[in-house]
Specification:
The structure is a homodimer.
Chain A: H1 2-13, H2 17-30, H3 33-42, E1 47-48, H4 49-56, H5 60-72, E2 76-81, E3 84-89, H6 92-107
Antiparallel strand pairs in A: 1-3, 2-3
The structure holds a DNA duplex (30 and 30 nucleotides).
DNA sequence: TTAACATGTGAACAGTTGTTCATACGTTAA
DNA sequence: TTAACGTATGAACAACTGTTCACATGTTAA
């Protein structure tokens, strides 16, 4: 039956568990308002923890934890300058991803 | 100081809480392997709950719950055909969003 | 009508996640 | 060197999330 072939075909072509896992982890990283705001801010400028904590009005610790999560998935990079760490988005893919999501949301509000 | 103006500027231009919330909820919807696989499957064909549960090898209930979450955020639509409900992606934005994420992940593996 | 089927849904439980707190580390200015 | 600063991190707790289970609803075939 045609229908059964469709099912087999999709099952066969499903991305591997590894890809799916990485993808869903990447998306879930954005799935938190705090991290979303961090990404928004970093899409405007390179910023240090202290500045981010002012912009988001949150503790250094909370910001730092979230930045670590973003860094673990290669979504942001950072450079040290003295006692400060300046963070920025890692590549334009991230911005594309973010903007694609923003576009979707704004169209529906 | 310039630096302070940057901070003020970013704070002022930050999207409203509503937009950020909707955006992060949208992303978090994708932030689960089960839903990611559902979206992947639906990007290939319109499918009913039963077929999805075969493809993902999961219970009807689990699939149905996840589909509801996807539907609540307008990410999928469905049509009834007798006792079956056929689901499909709601618009091409979703696919763009999904593919943009996939592109990002695949480039790094 | 009855039985089998396909899906939907509420409750509950386990597992995960995000924040706070306390503290540690490295850097700079005095 | 010492004190203040900026950031990082582990532990712990609260809050959230996803799955399963049990059952309900609606549909089709016999």
């Amino acid at each position: 039956m045609v229908r059964e072939n469709i099912i087999k075909d999709i099952s066969r072509n499903m991305e591997t568990g590894e890809v799916i896992d990485k993808l869903s982890r990447t998306f879930s990283i954005f799935g938190d308002p705090t991290r979303t705001r961090i990404v928004f801010a970093l899409s405007k400028a390179e910023l240090c923890v202290n500045e981010l904590s002012q912009i988001l009005d949150m503790s250094h610790s909370a910001i730092s934890h979230q930045l670590r999560a973003l860094k673990d998935l290669d979504l942001v990079r950072y450079r040290k300058d003295g006692r400060r760490s300046y963070y920025s988005l890692n590549d334009e893919h991230i911005e594309n991803l973010f903007n694609e999501g923003l576009k979707h949301v704004l169209e529906r509000m």
